[in-house]
């Protein structure tokens, strides 16, 4: 999917919400555990209840890898369900990959070709040759970690090297890489104070913004400097939406949380 198509969808739905599908078998309603694939059943119910309120879904692969081969099968069933029944959705594999070039090519094949995601998150630490194999895929996006939402982001990402913070160097340098038009960036909602500076470096890029909800980030704070003329933001919320209830009404309660965020986005867009 192109960013233009993503923008069109955002404007139609008046929503730039991305729902995180981070399924933990200890947190999902117990009645689902009797199903052959509880993870998929949970995802299917969440997707069916929220699809009109968001434009993207982001499974974090850790929550699937943790369950071995069954977890991968649940991930595959989830992405196949989205691609078959909701093909207009933007899909993000939050996998935070990146390795030497030939290995990165294999990661890119796994997420773009085999699984059929629109995008994958990638760590920039190993540099250009670890990221360009992902960028080589047309109409697919590589979402580079720039300034993450966690406290540990201050360990390295905001430290100065040659008078410039590391996260700024990631943004500046990555713009020079081949097919850099296929880049997006992760910037945490908990780092709202940094969006003004970030937009000076990447005014036109889409930013994936996790950290609204359970991590305390605020939608309005992010939007103040994060929005651009193409909207340019995908705001992710996972736990606050999908675990709004642990009862049989979990999908209904997830929908209520998604409505709350969508209405706030509609207000901001108007
Ligand atoms: O900087 C980052 C990068 C990724 N994440 C991921 O996003 C979701 C957030 O989940 P919540 O439940 O809404 O807190 C999760 O998959 C993280 O691994 C992030 O939080 N921060």
Describe this structure as you would to a colleague.
- This protein is an alpha/beta fold.
- The chain has one domain (3-269): TIM Barrel.
- It contains 12 helices and 10 strands.
- The chain has helices spanning 3-13, 38-50, 62-65, 68-85, 101-114, 128-135, 153-156, 166-174, 195-201, 219-226, 239-242, 250-269; strands at residues 17-20, 56-58, 90-97, 119-122, 141-147, 160-161, 164-165, 183-187, 207-209, 233-237.
- The strands form 2 sheets. An 8-stranded parallel β-barrel has the order 1-2-3-4-5-8-9-10, surrounded by 5 helices.
- β1, α2 and β2 (56-58) form a beta-alpha-beta unit.
- α5 (101-114) packs parallel to α6 (128-135).
- Ligand LLZGTKA7 binds next to β10 and α11.
- The ligand O=c1ccn([C@@H]2O[C@H](COP(=O)(O)O)[C@@H](O)[C@H]2O)c(=O)[nH]1 is lined by residues 20, 22, 60, 94, 148-149, 186, 188, 210-211, 213-215, 236-240.
Number of strands: 10
Average pLDDT score: 98
> What is the 3D shape?
globular
List the uncertain runs.
none
Which fold does the CATH topology refer to? Answer: TIM Barrel
Helix-strand string: HEHEHHEHEHEHEEHEHEHEHH
- Amino- and carboxy-terminal Cα gap: 25 Å
* Spatial order of the strands forming the largest sheet: 1-2-3-4-5-8-9-10
Q: Rounded to an integer, what's the Rg over CA atoms?
A: 18 Å
Number of helices: 12
Q: What is the domain tally?
A: 1
Indicate the percent of residues in helices. 40-55%
EC number: 4.1.1.23
InterPro entries: Aldolase_TIM, OMPdecase_type-2, OMPdeCOase_dom, RibuloseP-bd_barrel
Pathway: Pyrimidine metabolism; UMP biosynthesis via de novo pathway; UMP from orotate: step 2/2
GO molecular function: orotidine-5'-phosphate decarboxylase activity
């Amino acid at each position: 999917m192109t960013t233009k198509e993503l923008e069109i969808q955002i404007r139609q739905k008046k929503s730039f919400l991305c729902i995180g599908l981070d399924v933990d078998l200890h947190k999902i309603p117990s009645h689902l555990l009797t199903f052959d694939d509880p993870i998929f059943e949970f995802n299917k119910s969440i997707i069916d209840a929220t699809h009109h309120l968001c434009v993207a879904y982001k499974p974090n692969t850790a929550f699937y890898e943790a369950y071995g081969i069954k977890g991968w099968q649940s991930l595959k069933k989830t992405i196949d369900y989205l691609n078959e029944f909701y093909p207009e959705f933007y899909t993000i594999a939050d996998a935070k990959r990146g390795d030497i070039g030939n290995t990165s090519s294999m990661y890119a094949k796994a997420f773009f070709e085999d699984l059929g995601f629109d995008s994958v998150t990638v760590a920039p630490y190993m540099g250009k040759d670890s990221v360009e194999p992902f960028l080589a895929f047309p109409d697919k996006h590589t979402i580079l970690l720039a300034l993450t939402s966690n406290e540990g982001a201050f360990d390295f990402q905001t430290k100065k090297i040659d008078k410039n913070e590391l996260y700024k160097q990631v943004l500046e340098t990555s713009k020079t890489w081949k097919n850099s038009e296929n880049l997006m960036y992760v910037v945490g909602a908990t780092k709202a104070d940094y969006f003004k500076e970030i937009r000076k470096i990447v005014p036109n890029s889409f930013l994936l913004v996790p950290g609204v909800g359970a991590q305390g980030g605020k939608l309005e704070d992010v939007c103040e400097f994060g929005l651009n003329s193409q909207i340019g933001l995908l705001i992710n919320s996972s736990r606050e939406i999908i675990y709004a209830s642990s009862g049989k009404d979990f999908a209904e309660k997830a929908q209520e949380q998604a409505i709350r965020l969508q209405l706030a986005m509609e207000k901001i867009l108007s």
